[in-house]
Amino acid sequence: QGEREALMDRIKSLLKEQNAVLVAHYYTAADLQILADETGGYVSDSLDMARFGKEHPAQTLVVAGVRFMGETAKILTPEKRVLMPELEATCSLDIGCPADEFSAFCDQYPDHTVVVYANTSAAVKARADWVVTSSIAVDVVKHLHERGEKILWGPDKHLGDYIRRETGAEMVLWDGSCIVHEEFKGLELEKLRAEHPDALILVHPESPRAVVEQADVVGSTSKLLQAVQTMDAPAFIVATDNGIFHKMRQAAPDKHLLEAPTAGRSATCSSCAHCPWMAMNGLRNLAHVLETGSNEIFVDPAIAEQALVSLNRMLDFSA
Ligand code: 13P
Ligand code: SF4
Fold this sequence. Notes:
The chain is of the alpha/beta class. It has three domains: 3-89 and 279-298, Rossmann fold, CATH 3.40.50.10800; 93-178, Rossmann fold, CATH 3.40.50; 181-274, Rossmann fold, CATH 3.40.50. Helices cover 45% and strands 16% of the residues. It contains 15 helices and twelve strands. The strands form three sheets. The chain has a four-stranded parallel beta sheet with strand order 2-1-3-4, with helices on both faces. α11 links the parallel β9 (199-203) and β10. It starts with a helix and ends with a helix. The relative contact order is 0.16. The model has no long low-confidence stretch (mean pLDDT 96). The structure holds 1,3-dihydroxyacetonephosphate and iron/sulfur cluster. 1,3-dihydroxyacetonephosphate is lined by residues 45-47, 119, 133-135, 178, 206, 220-221. 1,3-dihydroxyacetonephosphate (13P) binds at residues 45-47, 119, 133-135, 178, 206, 220-221. It comes from Alkalilimnicola ehrlichii. Catalyzes the condensation of iminoaspartate with dihydroxyacetone phosphate to form quinolinate.
């Protein structure tokens, strides 16, 4: 038996012994997604990860993804033990939006409703009126705009720009971006599109405008996966982290899937669209946290109480 199989078996028994469930994001390694699927866990986008963790009866949630996903799970279910394979797995959007600076920015616009992306720290969520993920961001802002509210949005400027164009809302934007999606390039995508005229283009809205504007479908990871399953096309060009190709290939084995071109192309890497923090999650550190109980997520209770208000608005809105 190889190391991989041995680790997979060990993790399966540890999950069972400890009444723990594995929740993984689409961008994590295929082996983690396979484990979640085979053990009654869940693989999804960030909104559904939050919902699943909240509703599942297991006493321990093991969150394979990045830090904000573990924190969200803990805030929503403080009575549960939340473990993560790697506590250093962060996100450039979170790093680029320190709570004190963001709070000072909000203070400059006291008449704006503060809407933040889920890819933020608990303290930033605590300062916000609403939290949203990419799957409901447009709908929430549309709803607020229809109520006559002005929006302060953070941290992803590309997603903010997309929401503003979709809703016509008056929005001020924080200047943050995702290091993975930022690399997709409009001109190169045009060239690839010309080479594959039968392909549809699927784009995550953290990508720059020049890429989003060429999309046939713009949406969260779940929406892009659903497009591959349901749309009648022989090929797709996908502008998001290539971790999602595991599920896309599973869902639509006959379709031709191409990675959208990035600036990071090299001889060894035709598209370098993979989040370095998602990549920190692996079989070894997953087995280790289950064996030792290390890497438990804690959130300051006062911050968690505040953040819960804006997170619950998100869940109630999407219910
Ligand atoms: P989704 O909510 O679409 O899964 O996105 C999370 C994320 O981090 C995208 O980079
Ligand atoms: Fe953050 Fe981008 Fe990684 Fe998603 S892909 S976790 S937005 S750095």
